[in-house]
User: Fold this.
Amino acid sequence: MDTMTTTAPVPEDRSSLGTEGPDGSPAPNAARAPDTAPVPPGSSPWQLARRELRRRPAVRVSLGVVLLFVLMAATAPWLGALGGWSPNEFDKTAIDPYLGGQPLGALGGISPEHWLGVEPVTGRDLFARVINGAQVSLLIAFAATAIVVVAGTAAGIAAGYFGGRTDTILSRLMDLTMSFPSLIFMIAMLSVAKDVNRIVLMTTVIGVFGWPGVARVVRGQTLSLKHREYVDAARVGGSGPWRILTRDILPGVSGPVIAYTTLLIPGMISTEAALSYLGVGVRPPTPSWGQMIAESVAYYETDPMYFVIPSVFLFLAVLAFTLLGDALRDILDPRGGRS
Assistant:
């Protein structure tokens, strides 16, 4: 009599279900691993920024444009020499004296000698003037932003950490500064001051009116950090205020400050261009994008390229810095981003 043998059922390994098809290929409904690795704990703001910027093509393009403008501004004298013309050198052979000084040739006189054309009446090379205008605009924007960030961060940390009378005085000073109609006050100050370095004056005036915004952001961050456990531990361990502020508080507010700094720069570029457009900024013959746009208004019907070229450069610079600043804000200060 044959005996029937039974085998115990083998438990099915459900962890591999849906991961492979009949031919060994991954099944359509297989759970896929996330594309990005989890963020390591303790990553610095710069590490977070680099990791996220590598994942966003549009932001990489913006970063490339920003670096291109910075490189162009830093090497403006050499680039101008490469084009063969200085920003204040006249070329009377490139304009038609019988047509009111209009550039010879199409598109505002663009030619192998003048890569972006020439300025009407004077014949000055637009390529040399645009890149030197980038140097002036970015120099003022970066210097004014540095003043704003340093003063705002120092005031915000002091107000948030010490509190009491220090917070009251600094907060009222912020309110007082922000209550001024800054643009009108800038125009008045720049109009009165005559025999001074215009670049230094513009940098100082723009910086004086910009620091309260950064100070408010830093003050709020400091208020949320000063009662954290590691700050209390440092205080109990005998650390003084200076050590706590520089070792514990400042690294904690660095992310929002970096994001806010990048968003400040396009505003500073626009402010410098607006002041130069109104005639109270950089004085001729020093080139500036706003000054060039103001001068081109009289020729936009007969020579539209004279208006288009500096306007395009100004637009691209502001757009690139704005997109980069928005991305850094989303990465480094997600709670402060748009909902």
In short: The chain has twelve helices and two strands. The mean pLDDT is 81. The longest strand covers residues 95-96.
